[in-house]
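just leaving the lab so this will be short. below you get a single protein, a line of residues and a line of whole numbers that encode the local backbone shape. id like you to explain what the token line says about the fold, in plain words if possible. thanks a lot i owe you, the record is right below:

…
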Amino acid sequence: MINNRQQMHKTAPPKRRRKPAPPLAAKSRPGPKSNKQSQIIAMMRQPMGATLDEMSDAIGWKVSAITRVVQSLLFCTRAGVRRISSEKRPDGATVYRAA
């Protein structure tokens, strides 16, 4: 048994090598992030604007997800939206317009 222990210490397991890093992705061209984001921008650029419910019905997303996209458009310069305004309708719905 002693001989087996001595042999085990002499042969160390091989070291694991790291995988090579993946190549860096090329920079994306400026523009909307996705087709659905461009649909949201198009709906907001209509003369009457669009409500969150109208946008969620047209795209199929939850209202909270569309709210996040609208908030990101405020800070994203690549989307081409310079200004977003919001107004309350008499029925209580908030209408968003993009300029």
About this structure: The helical segments are 2-10, 35-44, 52-59, 63-75. The chain has a mean pLDDT of 80. Residues 44 and 58 are 12 Å apart (CA to CA). The domain at 34-99 is CATH 1.10.10.10 (Arc Repressor Mutant, subunit A).
